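Risk register update: the risk of archive-format incompatibility is retired. Evidence:
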Amino acid sequence: KRPAAGSTAPSPTLATAPSDVFSLGATLFAAVEGTSPFGTADNPLLVLRRAAAGDLLPIHRAGPLTPVLSALLRHDPVKRPDAAGAWQMLQELAATLTDGDKLDSF
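Archived output:
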């Protein structure tokens, strides 16, 4: 099954570790921002074009998750963290949050 246009990594769409990290970032972005990191369009080719160009929507609602999303969604796959690095970033963020922060800051 092909990935949805809005969660496609700007790198080749083969299943690779960097594209999986990007997809994690795209999923988290959608959960927090309410849309794909490339937005929506009536024409899915427009969304794919945005993905290929790395043309991301701005992050507005992610609060302390913003630096993590920015890292996971880097256009250059070499500059994205690997899966272990993504896990570490999320663990470090989780350790800084209190129960109230987890909901209130987003």
